[in-house]
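Homework help board

Subject: predicted structure for assignment chain

Our instructor gave us this sequence and asked us to write out the predicted structure in token form, then describe one feature. I got the tokens but I'm not sure how to describe them. Can anyone check?
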Amino acid sequence: METGKSPRHDPGVDLRALGNTPQDFARDLLSNLYYERGTTVESASAQDMYDSLARTVRDRLAERRARTAAAHYQANPRWLYYLSAEYMLGRQLEQNLLYTGTTDLAREAVPDFDTTAAQDVEPGLGNGGLGRLAACLLDSLATMDLPAVGYGIRYDLGIFKQDLDAGGQVERPDDWAFQGNPWEFPAPDDNQVVGFYGKVTSVDGRREWEPAETVLGEPSHMLVPGYGTDTVNIVRLWRARAAQGSFDLTRFAHGQYAEAVADVVRSENISKVLYPDDSTDLGRELRLKQQYFLVSCSLRDIIRRFSFRNDGNWDEFAAKTTIQLNDTHPVLAIPELMRLLVDEYELDWDRAWRITHDTFGYTCHTLLPEALETWPVATIENLLPRHLEIIYEINARFLAEVSERFPGDVARIQRMSLVQEEPERRIRMANLAVVGSRAVNGVAALHSQLLAETTLRDFAELWPGRFHNVTNGVTPRRFVKIANPALSDLISSALGSDAWLRDLSLLQGLEPFAADDAFRARWREIKRANKLTLGVAPDFLTDVIVKRFHEYKRQLLKLLHTITLYQRIRAGETPAPRTVVFAGKAAPGYWAVKDVIRLINAVAATVNNDPAVAPYLKVFFPANYNVTLGQRIYPAADLSEQISLAGKEASGTGNMKLALNGAVTIGTLDGANVEIRDRVGADNFFLFGLDAAEAATLRSSDYRPRDYYERDDELRAAVDAIGDGTFAGGDRQAFGGVLASLLDRDEYLTLADFRSYLDAQAEVEKVWLDAEAWTAKSILNTARSGYFSSDRTIADYTRTIWGLDPVRVNP
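My token output:
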């Protein structure tokens, strides 16, 4: 199914030469060690053994993949193609061992299994919640036997590896595939050609783009198995390669070594890192190149796959194909598909537009107007001249529809136009996504409501039936079964089976155990052991705020509380012992929150080195937050901090992972917090702060953060400690930017919510001191979080937007 080359696998032919007895597994492991790594048991390194083990497991998945492809070819189903700039897949070995049922076989066959497994490296293909969600959805699609392919970019260096130097974030290359990646299948013979720059001419009445520069998109794919099924889907990743002949041998012979490889470097930079810094013109152009590279390669591949069984019958394309755009990064797919249909396949505009519009769905992940992506017209005109023409044509036809529906409403037309005119002409990618898609969805009930009422209000008024909600979810296989095996075993024992891993609603069967003394005791033992694994004090309240750093997520509010606790202890109070865990990355150019990271670590250094404070408070900031680190943090957490300003967070998925692992949430009514609180119960959630409407009203008024500062003694003391050098060796200027953000702007109402937050934290402490009451709340958070499975998310997408049918793979 991947290449369309003969011979295809006959589903009646059994490829299963692979056995799952200990002898079979050991034989296959040795075979890979000898014939793939070219070494022996006696001389094998840990990396040799890991690679051989990975290939042995991969072979078993590949056999399932062959049967899956055969079943898909036979069924000719409607396909989902998921386009995403990010996939945070996490380490592959443990999951693939679980999904192939070979964990025990591997432990028996590999002498030092733990050392071998430690060589597994998390693919550097994502950064935050966007990528973690995408990975969860792929897992659920395969688990539910739904035909799907994920498309992304195979970044050489990922986003970056975060180190801390003097408390500040330092970005290092994340060379995640330096030792190779045994989980992927390169396909260099399936290259796609991608063009940039050039000119557009008219030929026989049709527009023809002549790119001035081309690069090759080299695909590889990684296998995405389902849990409890033989279905194995794929995620197809594109890597930029220079076209043949790009190396200048003449210049190299004359010692001009850098010039000789300049074209190669320029081409391959496209897939070098995730989200290249766009603070310069060259950086912005590279990021746009990256986005177009993804969609151009992917659409050609999608059309190739469609042609296998449908023989170019374009009237069937939208019936057999649905493409989901994960945020605005892949939105250039809309004009690119129009270009392919109109220019290359010579369809008329109206027919091409019906196909395009009926094919795409768009998931919006933000409410922040400043986060809605736009591109300068001049940049698109230079890089993708034909696409700009197509966008203009789409816009002209769309605005004619708006004018007919709302005659004379010039302001509305200006707001809805795909082209922003002032202060600079830019293309609004979110507007293009809505116009070019048949369905638009938010990712939590509140987010979807606010999306339709505020951010995309004009479009929702024009096309109310186009807007949907699909609340995010996470996979319990990775984030409970793998991340928290002891808790998983306890849950399965209590429920009588592990069927909950495929039907998370079954967790509600845990509710009676919240009143069971022995069960609560075992629950606490597991949490304590998980804290020891993380390396935090096992008897302290583990208070966790782990997420991407952004001002609206308000890590600074958590830090003000931490400073207040420190000052209370110094004044003689003895609160319940607490470890505050911060983790997350800041975008390289986001200096405001990078200063917050530096301040957090300065506070940590002061707190953790004060013997008077040590019995009551510790601050922990582990570097390089990713899926692997998250799998250690979530099981250890007691308190989940979800404290963004109400109305700013789209959904969140960390809040779900933490609740599933028994953390109790303290949070605002923002994103999926609203639904978490509704489902776990108000008594099992610590609520504080302004709601979205109150926050919007206050932000639109003459908000004066200094008023809150001046009338709250504890708030003033905490803020003053930042400004007087308490955490900077007396240097009063060290954190001047943070101080100004609080007192002069406070855009996200941190000071306004401070006292409400401290009151809620006092209630947290009161409940924590009653171990039985806290444990009951913890159990109920897990028991009532079944809704937040990514399987339910996929079921919602399938029912409301995608219209997919499962294809069973014969065992």
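Reply (TA_rk): Your tokens look well-formed. For the description, you could write something like this. Residues 1-16 have pLDDT under 50 and may be disordered. That's the kind of observation they're looking for.
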